[in-house]
Specification:
The complex is a heterodimer. Chain A is mainly alpha-helical. By secondary structure, chain B is of the alpha/beta class. Chain B has a 4-stranded mixed β-sheet with strand order 4-7-6-5. Chain B has a 3-stranded mixed β-sheet with strand order 1-2-3. The two termini of chain B are 31 Å apart. About 5% of the residues of chain B have low confidence. The chains are: A mainly alpha, B alpha/beta. Chains A and B meet through helix 2, helix 4, helix 5 and helix 9 of A and helix 6 of B. Chain A: It comes from Tepidicella xavieri.
């Protein structure tokens, strides 16, 4: 942090982190729209994505208002490049195991469910705490988002248990998805100057303090799902600090291409 | 209440939720307030789910109604306190039932203050897959029902099935 960083700068960066998380996972999960494994899950993913994109819009609107000038929720979502996004790397990964960005393979619903579970388990705690943010607008968005995220967690946890405690095949795939994704959760607790500054003046929450509660939610569900908690070790990703995997570029290309091909277009 | 404000309330009462046409915006708890300001009338609305696609339509409907009344008015969106299904009256519940939707069960506000944060979250998710207890079939009234999907045609509803009359139905989830 430079000495000239103001609380407004921190607020903008912190809101962007929350908004980018929501929009990137919303975009990822929306890939299931029309391709869901069963129609009920197709609807569930579309509805969860709508909630996430709705949360992102509220947060981008607040960010834009503080940035001023020509900035709008649309310029923030569609006209920033991957290095300007502040989402967790976990959320930009494709719905399958580790492959290079241009590889194409079938989507794996276990990966989708495990990711939604790990992230929603964190966000119910984050939104719960942010209801007490010193920023009234953020507190209001948190109160709304908490209600929605509880349903996301409930959905993901339910499927996690069904898959883990299901057939040999579903168990193996849920465990493989967990082994693949768990290391990315290290980023939740990694140092971030923006998060530290936001927590210091009561805008944000110190995520590290939520870790025991997150562990409890995860362990409780994994025990019921008969899954083994994978080690969270190895490289600590830094998406929230702007260093992303190659997958974010592909995701944004799809999300942003229409807006960039026709800038300022109106319906 | 001034005559203008009264007239605006009366006119807006005719507007319904595009997804649930049996409830007015006031009964849904979306229309929060109509008040007189120095330069006209201010209508306060509180959005439901963050991503609800009906909200844009609802705002347009309110604007159009105000315009047709010829009253200089503006629409203000208020996020806090967050919209909750607690704001629906017993009459609204009755209309939902008659329309084939099981109304939300219980009061969210009371459930929310009962326990500390982490415990509350755990308690909320425990027992997932079993659905909310006591969701009665809107057709035959049986409590012998099962949740078939967490999400229905819209984010605010879950899919249920009655094990007595065999009818599938929507349940308006507590929010």
């Amino acid at each position: 942090m430079s000495a000239t960083t103001t609380t407004t700068d921190v607020t903008i960066d912190y809101l962007l982190h929350l908004a980018d998380n929501a929009v990137v996972l919303g975009q990822r999960n929306a890939e299931w729209c029309g391709h869901g494994p069963v129609i009920e899950e197709d609807l569930a993913m579309a509805n969860i994505s709508l909630d996430l994109i709705g949360q992102a819009r509220l947060l981008y609107q607040q960010t834009a208002a503080r940035m001023g000038g020509d900035v709008t929720e649309d310029t923030l979502a569609y006209f920033r490049d991957d290095t300007q996004f502040r989402n967790y790397t976990l959320l930009e990964l494709p719905h399958h195991g580790p492959l290079v960005g241009y590889a194409r393979t079938d989507r794996d619903y276990a990966t989708t469910i495990v990711r939604n579970f790990l992230y929603s388990a964190l966000m119910v705690l984050v939104w719960e705490a942010l209801q007490r943010s010193c920023d009234d607008e953020l507190a209001a968005i948190a109160a709304k988002s908490l209600k929605e995220t509880r349903y996301h967690l409930r959905h993901a946890r339910d499927w996690l248990v069904r898959m883990g405690d299901g057939t040999d095949e579903s168990h193996a795939r849920a465990q493989a998805a967990l082994d693949h994704l768990m290391p990315y959760t290290q980023e939740f607790w990694a140092d971030s100057p923006v998060e530290a500054a936001a927590a210091a003046f009561g805008l944000g929450v110190d995520v590290k303090t939520l870790r025991p509660a997150w562990d409890a939610i995860v362990d409780d569900a994994l025990a019921e799902a008969t899954l083994k908690r994978s080690a969270a070790t190895g490289y600590v990703t830094q998406g929230k600090n702007g260093l992303h995997s190659e997958h974010l570029g592909y995701l944004l290309a799809e999300m942003q291409c229409l807006a960039r091909a026709h800038p300022g277009a109106q319906w | 209440m001034s005559q203008t404000v009264e007239r605006v309330w009366a006119e807006l009462e005719r507007l319904s939720d595009p997804e649930i046409p049996v409830l007015s915006l006031r009964e849904m708890g979306i229309l929060r307030d109509v008040r007189e300001t120095a330069d006209g009338v201010e209508v306060v609305i509180t959005p439901t789910y963050s991503g609800c696609p009906a909200m844009a339509q609802i705002e347009d409907d309110v604007r159009q109604t105000l315009q047709s009344l010829g009253v200089p008015a503006r629409v203000v969106t208020r996020l806090a306190p967050a919209w909750t299904t607690d704001w629906m009256s017993e009459t609204a519940h009755e209309k939902l039932r008659a329309y084939g939707i099981a109304p939300p069960q219980g009061r969210c506000a009371e459930a929310a203050v009962a326990a500390p944060a982490a415990e509350r979250v755990l308690r909320f998710v425990r027992g997932a897959g079993q659905g909310a207890p006591g969701v009665a079939c809107p057709r035959c009234g049986s409590l012998h029902t099962v949740e078939t999907s967490h999400f229905g045609s819209t984010a605010c509803k879950a899919l249920y099935k009655c094990l007595d009359c065999q009818e599938p139905f929507d349940h308006f989830k507590p929010y």
